[in-house]
Amino acid sequence: MTSRSAAGTVDALGHYERGASTYFAAQCDQRFGYYLYVPQDFELGRSSDYRLCVLVHGTGRTPSVYRDLFAGFADANRSIIVAPLFPAGIIEPGELANYKFIAFHDIRYDQVLNGIVDEIAARFRLAERRFLLFGYSGGGHFAHRISIFIRQGCSACRSALPAWSRCSTSGSRGGAASPISRRGSE
């Protein structure tokens, strides 16, 4: 259980806030959420020694797998891992590609990610808000685009194995139109 001071600030981490966490709803938009990995030796008083590493899932949406695979990295490099989940079927049932673009209908995924990063940076009292960004497959497309749009927040980006490199706003994968916004599958 998280302990709070008389002023309402968090003084200690709860049991589920170390190691591999449960799934947390993002406070900026509860349609989205994230998994965390916080090294067991993390202390709020030494949080300035830690950095944030964001791992973005592929189309299969298995963020907890990425979190678990990067746990050793987090321990060795004094990092807190956040693995957001961008669910399929938001707004349009069955839609799988929505998060791969910066904008989808009224959702701005750059703002969702910034909200999650702000929430975690505040919760764990991180001195540095800038983060490392990794994306696999569809998450690689997302990471590449996000690193362009929020350069001030992203200190390094690695995209791994993007599944398709050309896209169009019409939903076909053969065109060469803007990869920034997509109104959904047509």
Keywords for this entry:
single chain; 186 residues; alpha/beta; Rossmann fold; 7-stranded mixed β-sheet; 3-stranded mixed β-sheet; 4 helices; 12 strands; 22% helix
Task: Break the fold down into its secondary structure elements and pairings.
Layout: E1 3-4, E2 10-12, E3 19-20, E4 24-25, E5 33-38, E6 51-56, H1 63-69, H2 71-77, E7 79-85, E8 103-104, E9 107-108, H3 109-123, E10 131-136, H4 138-149, E11 154-160, E12 181-182
Parallel strand pairs: 6-7, 6-10, 8-12, 10-11
Antiparallel strand pairs: 1-2, 3-5, 4-5, 5-7, 8-9
**Distinct helical segment count:** 4
N-to-C order of helices and strands: EEEEEEHHEEEHEHEE
CATH homologous superfamily placement = Alpha/Beta hydrolase fold, catalytic domain
Tell me the CATH topology: Rossmann fold
CATH architecture: 3-Layer(aba) Sandwich
Would you tell me the overall average pLDDT?
A: 83
Structural class: alpha/beta
Note the overall shape.
globular
Taken as a percent bin, the fraction of beta residues is: 25-35%
The quaternary organization reads as single chain
Helix content: 10-25%
Give structural notes.
By secondary structure, the chain is α/β, with parallel strands linked by helices. The chain has one domain: 3-Layer(aba) Sandwich (Rossmann fold), CATH 3.40.50. Helices cover 22% and strands 25% of the residues. It contains four helices and twelve strands; from the N terminus they run ββββββααβββαβαββ. The chain has helices at 63-69, 71-77, 109-123, 138-149; strands spanning 3-4, 10-12, 19-20, 24-25, 33-38, 51-56, 79-85, 103-104, 107-108, 131-136, 154-160, 181-182. The strands form three sheets. Strands 3, 4, 5, 6, 7, 10 and 11 form a seven-stranded mixed sheet that branches. The chain has a three-stranded mixed sheet with strand order 9-8-12. A two-stranded antiparallel sheet has the order 1-2.
